[in-house]
Amino acid sequence: MDPEVPIVFNFVVTLLPWVVGILAISVGGWVFTTWLRIKNGYPLQNSWGFPIHPKTDREAAERIKLLTNENAQLRAELGSVKDRLETVERIITDQPTRLAREIDGLAIDKGGNA
């Protein structure tokens, strides 16, 4: 056996954990930055650093348009529901005598006739 083999073997065994550690940190950093990009809405990049945008076909564009319209309708409906809820909350939390006066005030027209 060559006398230099144990020296080289010890060198590799000593150096290998450092190489594996640096490699693990590098890969972990890459995974973390990719996750941050996805989470915050940035486009991913290819190996040359150019952004990769998802391709949209006609069907996807039409689906986006339909979802946008549905979203607008739901927002309008939610606004009317909030208005109704506000009125119901006001009726429930007001004093009963005040509510009775308002109803009586609506029942009597401007001429004082019921």
Layout of secondary structure:
Blueprint: H1 5-40, E1 44-45, E2 51-52, H2 58-93, H3 96-107
Antiparallel strand pairs: 1-2
Question: In words, what does this structure look like?
Answer:
- This protein has 114 residues and is mainly alpha-helical.
- The protein contains three helices and two strands.
- Helices cover 74% and strands 4% of the residues.
- A two-stranded antiparallel ribbon has the order 1-2.
- It is elongated and about 120 Å long.
Helix/strand-derived category reads: mainly alpha
Q: Which of globular, elongated, flat, extended, rod-shaped describes the shape?
A: elongated
Task: Let me know the number of strands.
Answer: 2
Low-confidence stretches: none
Largest sheet: 2 strands, antiparallel
| Multimeric organization | single chain
Rounded to an integer, what's the Rg over CA atoms?
35 Å
Order of helices and strands: HEEHH
| Average pLDDT figure | 85
What is the CA-CA span between the terminal residues?
A: 119 Å
Roughly what percent helix? over 70%
Helix run count: 3
Give the spatial strand order of the biggest sheet.
1-2
Tell me the strand percentage band: under 5%
Keywords, separated by commas or semicolons:
114 residues; mainly alpha; two-stranded antiparallel sheet; 3 helices; 74% helix; 4% strand
Concise account of the structure shown:
The protein has 114 residues and is mainly α.
